[in-house]
Please model this.
Amino acid sequence: MSSLLTPHPPILTPRRGIGVVELVVAVGIITTVAVGVLAVGRFAILAQRVAALDRRAVLVAAEGMATARFVRDANWAAFAALPVDTPLYPTFAGGAVSLSIVDPGDVDGVFIRVVTLSNVYRDGSGNITPTGTLDADARGTDVTVTWTDPFGGNRSSDIDAYLMNLN
Amino acid sequence: MPYSIFQTRPVPSRRFWFGVPDSRFHKGVTLIETVIYITLFTLVFSAATGFLINILHVAIAVRADQALVANIALALKTMELEVRHADAVYTSTSVFDNDGGQLSLRTPRSAPTDHEAAYVDFYLDNGVVYERRDDGSSPLALTSGDIDVSVFRIERYTSSSAEGVRLIVTAEPANVSTVLTEPRTLRTFVVIRPFTP
Model:
């Protein structure tokens, strides 16, 4: 009965030591922070991969334009006879360079490269315009490279030029 | 209802919570709490450390990959520029369609005073692509020692009125685990268009 004589403060939940709930909360916070840091790190790494792919895509597109120039230099008539507004694919096969309507497959298994030719029209002053007189000695040339980045997004790189008959 | 100072503290009905002692009814830290804490902390710390080390490895590999691509691209750009200025491909010393190829060019750039043209070679030696000019200077490394070039391939395409050279370089980082990296192949195609005044 000594407890009846010993006054105690009316504390219902004296908190001493570390409780399981506190432990779980602490572990949860630590885990959340760790996962956040790792997510940021992963994002940074993927962003660097995106940059590397961008750099490669520029080279792939430039090679496509060089292919069109080679075909133009080799034979303007054959180049001018290629279909306009139709996907063409640079092809290196059998020691020959060509722009083919047959898709040889993705470049490096990553990039889709398409060359599209278009007619060139000029106005009375010789300026290039959307409509006008067809310039038979010029072709609009568009090289588009598309690929999927590590985030799953679609990206593209594009080079445009007018190729003229130099002969 | 407030407790009187003469009342005892309420007797807790549960001193255990799923088998774990509830600290509200005990003073200090029990052994089992310490064990649980250490176990959970170890698990979280191990997982976080493992992830962090893995991420660091991947980051190193990605940075090496980026440097690899930049290095190859720069070397290709240097060679492309030289090809653009060249008069012709010097086929006598060029090696085509070979993974250890050599490209020799006849170029008016930096020609000696008593010569119309100079000759420049691009070749692969011991994992490094070099540029060598015929002016007696030492060969210049176009790729760094951080990458190991395994393929330096030259393809020559000709027609009656056009000549082009395709340069293909395959390399991988030299000092990074090959488990995390893979060889990169970059290529460029250059049309030779001699300057005719």
